[in-house]
Amino acid sequence: MTEHPTAALDDVVHQRHRLGILTIAGEVKRVEFAYLKSTLNLTAGNLSRHIAVLEEAGLLVIEKGYEGKRPKTWVSVTAAGRKALAAEMAALRALLDRHGKA
Question: In this structure, what DSSP letter does residue 76 have?
């Protein structure tokens, strides 16, 4: 018996805000915290918590610094993060394929 595609979904990655963070950050070399906050319509605290979960899982790297005199926080996807995102997308594709055959 073949395992159902939902078994391949990763609870850390699959949560919608974390999936949003990974997909946006995966499109660029690094993304600024404020951009993620406004694009995903999250509070700073909520975004910080989701980023912390992804960082603890080794999927993101956080870089703090300054742009001029303004403090900035940048988020980058790690190699493990790119791999986890690709696996998540593959699981979602498998679900779409399965649904299309129903």
Answer: E
- State the first-to-last Cα distance of the chain, in angstroms, to the nearest integer: 17
Mean pLDDT (10-residue bins), the chain, 102 residues: 84 95 97 97 98 98 94 97 96 89 58
| pTM score, whole prediction | 0.90
Rounded CA separation 96/69 (Å): 47
- 3-state secondary structure labels for all residues of 18-75: HHHHHHHHHCCCCEEHHHHHHHHCCCHHHHHHHHHHHHHCCCEEEEEEEECCEEEEEE
| Residue 32, φ and ψ in degrees, nearest 5 | -85, 140
